[in-house]
Amino acid sequence: MIEAVGLTKRYGDKTAVYNLSFQVRPGAVTGFLGPNGSGKSTTMRMILGLDNPTAGSVTIGGHPYRRLPNAPRQVGALLDAKAVHGGRSARNHLLSLAQLSGIPARRVDEVLGVVGLQNVAKKRSKGFSLGMGQRLGIAAALLGDPQVLLFDEPVNGLDPEGILWVRNLMKALAAEGRTVFVSSHLMSEMALTADHLIVIGRGQLLADMSVTDFISANSADFARVRTPDTEPQLREKLTSALTEAGGHVLPEQDGALRVTGLPLPRISDLAHGADVRLWELSPHQASLEEAYMRMTQGAVDYRSTIDQKAGLQQPLPPGAQPPMPVPGQGQPGWYAPPPPQQGAQPVPGGPAAPSGPAAPAGPYGAAQPGPYGAPGTPGAPAANPYAPQQVQTPGTAPQAAPAPQGQAPGAAPAAPPVPQQAPAAAPAPADLTKPEDAR
Ligand SMILES: Nc1ncnc2c1ncn2[C@@H]1O[C@H](COP(=O)(O)OP(=O)(O)OP(=O)(O)O)[C@@H](O)[C@H]1O
After folding, report:
1. What value does the mean pLDDT take over residues 280-306?
2. Which single residue of 152, 276, 306, 429 has CA 20 to 30 Å from 30?
3. Which atom of ligand 1 is nearest to the CA of 42?
4. Could you tell me which residues come within 8 angstroms of residue 142 by beta carbon, excluding any fewer than 6 positions away?
5. Considering only CA atoms, which of 343, 344, 349, 346 is closest in space to residue 421?
6. What residues contact residue 61 under an 8 Å CB cut-off, 6+ apart?
């Protein structure tokens, strides 16, 4: 388990991460979301001991990364797929990582097979596509068969097949009881991959809850209503009736109306009372993307000057009313109806992330073979569920996690000032933005 308590990082005047407390539990894929510059990479670097917290602490299995016994075999990470010596072949890159951690060379060939790079293993990585580079980074993370895995934007540059493969890989790793912490900007992908979400904005915790709870806490149910396309006056008539009855009516792209604040039977009765025929009346819930946009739109640092709501808002048609602002939720958008009496913040305390089975001893712990064994091998484990190409040999090697750079080992972070359990939802973020980026 990864546990952050009061984690704070300042770069000069810039507060990149502020008072973050959360837990990432084993047996689940935990998605790490936040707008650009919200502090995701900084948090991951602190977890991996690559940056010292200004305050607070973060531990893996109860230890700071740098005090973990045999850390490279316990924790694997993909932070920057481009951090590879381009003149080296994929195999040599992995071999050098393996040697640093005492991992046998045969393990390199196994992970090359797992990520599907075995046929280009001897090619120099500088000729690799973005997707191939991502696969090489994932291979490095898997090298030590670690129980804890961190991936920063692992699907960046992957084609649809690659994205599906990464999704299945993450899920399979979590199903084995591993701790899988993955950042992404692809909400639709996170909705399919993650069980649990940690969302930050401007370095502060916005939400810590299951995907399902996140969507329901940050989006209201709404109804889609469609009147006959051939009779636009019916649409206007219905809009007036619904608005008079207290509903919020907003246009959808296809000419339908999105209605919040009125239950479906009431909408039906009002349409009947106004003598308006309906072609559609259906219940809906916002997607993860909509819920995420709603939550983070007040914490977005970078927004185009020519697109006030990041391209998601459409002009309102004549007669339509803009939605009421929601306190603490930034700018309202037509795509994000106000939540029902939830207040400004998401509902705290989604169910805890599912606890997976106790982590099996990896192939390097002698007790059990790992997931990379070839099928049919006597005594070998079941076929690797996520290998594009089945590997041939039961593994025997630990992992290469990123080596701390330029940091004195053992430099422990300051004691956490607020040793509380991770809150499910943090208070509204303070404005920590500074005009200067110290970088
Ligand atoms: N070494 C550094 N020196 C100064 N500022 C930094 C440094 N590293 C990060 N920052 C700043 O801290 C903030 C958080 O950056 P970080 O890279 O952690 O965000 P992020 O959520 O990973 O962003 P993205 O989604 O764009 O990758 C940003 O404003 C960034 O400019």
Report:
1. 71
2. 429
3. 18
4. 76, 111, 114, 115, 149, 399
5. 349
6. 1, 68, 74, 147, 148
CA atoms within 13 A on the CB side of 88: 14
Place of tokens 């990479």: 41
Q: Smallest Cα–Cα separation from 238: which of 198, 193, 209, 281? A: 281
Joined together, the tokens standing for residue 369 give: 């073979």
Q: How far is the CA of 202 from the centre of ligand 1 (A)?
A: 10
What domains can be seen in the chain, in order of their start residue? 221-285 (3.30.70.100)
Is any atom of ligand 1 closer than 6 Å to the C-beta of 346?
no
Q: What one-character DSSP code corresponds to residue 347?
A: P
Q: What phi and psi values does residue 97 have, to the nearest 5 degrees?
A: -65, -40
Q: What is the pLDDT of residues 97-115, one digit of tens each?
A: 898 888 888 999 999 999 9
CA atoms of 114 and 108, how far apart (whole Å):
10
Average pLDDT score over the chain: 73
Of 157-161, 168-172, 211-215, 377-381, which range is least confident? 377-381
31 lines ligand 1 (CB under 6 A): no
| Structural tokens at position 171 | 């899920």
Binding site membership of 40 for ligand 1 (Cβ less than 6 Å): yes
